[in-house]
Design goal:
Keywords: Membrane, Transferase, Transmembrane, Transmembrane helix. The protein has twelve helices and ten strands. It has about 400 residues and is an alpha/beta fold. The chain has a four-stranded parallel β-sheet with strand order 2-1-3-4, with helices on both faces. Strands 5-6 form a two-stranded antiparallel ribbon. It has a two-stranded antiparallel ribbon with strand order 7-8.
């Protein structure tokens, strides 16, 4: 079984190290208690076993982080532990990669050259000679700037000269892909994307987390806040305390999403999105929308399993149909449950969609989230959401 617990690279993020360490801690804890159970060693106090597990886990985590940060410092200040790199093909992505290498010395890459390769074979041969002379370690190739013949030649050269070759996807691709590589017998198969939440253990972790948070909010916040807001909402305008609206969730299924009512009852609530200085919003509505308190009843949706605490924000059904027809890859968001908050929202793409660029960036962040989910990413998004709610956001209206 490949656990990847110790596969930490120079480009690995700290959140990845922490996520792997938590998984390692959980498995180690099960193994330790299983050992004592199998060999009938329960004469030792549970507290003593817990201290032992804590010490081991803390030591491993500290060593991992220490090595990670010391190597970063070693690369950036002393210039050691580096790898020489070259890039084949000139376009926007390769220029961005060049800038990444140049302005992030702590990753340990030394950029040497960016080659604009034409169809002339002697040019490629000269570049390959340069790789040998300059002792280049890694070769990065832009797929759409090289012919198949050139790619084959570079791959063969890398294999025969012990060089690492990596590829930048076609520049026509808008969204990053995390291709899932599997074997059906001896046949290699690539899946378009890998979704971590599809794994049963991750589904269990996320669901337990959602139940814990939603139960806490319902019991200790909504239980006393709802009666107060109900009185204030009713005093200002006639109508229900809660506003419910059909949204699209997991697998495009419709469900009723709940909010505290922040507008006067009107026939266009399910059609027109709220705009700045919208005259439909009540005075109490302005307050609860500015602080995002109006979203709190959605923890009931979370408890019922229709939503998650963190995930792509669900849109009105009419808007979902519209965006699905106009925005490429919009439907990918429905591979996971929608959330009360999400990566797009804490990255500046919440509220009213004022331009096509807003919804494109929202979709881009949502796809990144579903392809890179971790419980630590959820915690980070929740923390940023709380900070933004306290500070107040420009588009919270």
């Amino acid at each position: 079984m490949n656990t990847d617990f110790y596969e930490v690279y120079r480009f690995t993020k700290v959140t990845k190290i922490l996520t792997l360490s938590i998984r390692q801690f959980a498995i180690f804890t099960l193994i330790v208690f299983a050992f004592f159970g199998i060999f009938n060693q329960y004469n030792k106090p549970v507290q003593q076993i817990g201290i032992y597990i804590g010490i081991v886990f803390s030591t491993i985590l500290i060593v991992k982080l220490l090595i990670f940060y010391l190597l970063k410092r070693f690369r950036s200040t002393l210039g050691g532990n580096f790898r020489n790199v070259v890039i084949f093909g000139k376009n926007r992505k390769t220029r961005q990669l060049k800038d990444f290498f140049v302005y992030n010395p702590d990753y340990g890459y030394k950029f040497k050259a960016l080659f604009d390769v034409s169809e002339k074979s002697n040019e490629l041969e000269q570049h390959l000679e340069y790789i040998i002379e300059q002792e280049i370690d890694e070769i990065y190739c832009s797929i759409d700037k090289l012919s198949q013949k050139q790619l084959d030649e570079i791959i063969a050269f890398a294999d025969n000269n012990l060089k690492v070759v990596k590829f930048l996807p076609d520049s026509r691709e808008i969204y990053a892909k995390r291709l899932n590589y599997q074997y059906y017998g001896y046949i290699p198969i690539l899946s378009l994307r890998s979704i971590p939440i599809d794994e049963p253990i991750n589904q269990l972790i996320k669901r337990v987390f959602d139940l814990f948070v939603s139960t806490f909010v319902i019991l200790f916040l909504l239980s006393w806040l709802t009666p107060i807001l109900a009185i204030l909402i009713k005093l200002e305008s006639k109508g229900p305390v809660f506003f419910k609206q059909k949204r699209n969730g997991l697998d495009y299924k419709e469900f009723y999403c709940y909010k505290f009512r922040s507008m006067k009852p009107n026939p266009t609530a399910d059609i027109h999105q709220v705009k700045r200085n919208d005259n439909r919003i009540t005075q109490i509505g302005k307050v609860i929308r500015k602080t995002s308190i109006d979203e709190l009843p959605q923890f009931i949706n979370v408890f019922r399993g229709e939503m998650s605490v963190v995930g792509p924000r669900p849109h009105m059904v009419s808007h979902t149909h519209m965006y699905a027809e106009r925005i490429d890859k919009f439907m990918v968001r429905h591979f996971i449950k929608p959330g009360i908050t999400g990566l797009a929202q804490v990255s500046g793409y919440r509220g009213e969609v004022e331009s096509k660029n807003d919804i494109i960036n929202r979709v881009r962040h949502d796809i990144f989230y579903l392809e890179n989910w971790s419980i630590l990413l959820d915690l980070k998004i929740i923390l940023l959401t709380i900070i933004n709610a306290i500070k107040g956001e420009e588009k919270a209206y």
